[in-house]
From TrEMBL:
Protein name from the UniProt record: TRIM3 protein
Length: 102
């Protein structure tokens, strides 16, 4: 264990889908930016209310949590479920059941 009892790990839990993913070579600093959280912080700081439209992301960041490429499609794991999120780290789309199961 390191300082404070922290044990270094080479895998981290994805904040969107909770699957264990490998930690990049550069450590936590090399993880992709959570653009959904960053946008929420930006809205909070600007005093703006409301949320970004589904699929909006900062330029060059790739598909967002509700990517138009995946939104409205059916879940591969749960055929009756509609796709509600897209995890950029895992590059997988999923429905509400996927999130609650993982």
């Amino acid at each position: 264990p390191g300082p404070g009892g922290f044990v270094a790990s080479t895998r981290v839990s994805c904040p969107l889908c909770r699957k264990l993913c490998p930690l990049p070579r550069g450590g936590a600093a090399a993880l992709p930016v959570n653009t959904t959280l960053a946008e929420g912080v930006k809205l909070y700081r600007s005093g703006t209310t409301g949320a970004a439209k589904a699929g909006e992301t900062e330029q060059g960041q790739g598909p967002g949590p509700l990517s138009p490429l995946a939104l409205g499609g059916t879940c591969q794991k749960h055929p009756g479920g509609l796709v509600q999120l897209y995890c950029r780290m895992c590059r997988q789309a999923g429905c509400g059941l996927c999130v609650s199961e993982e």
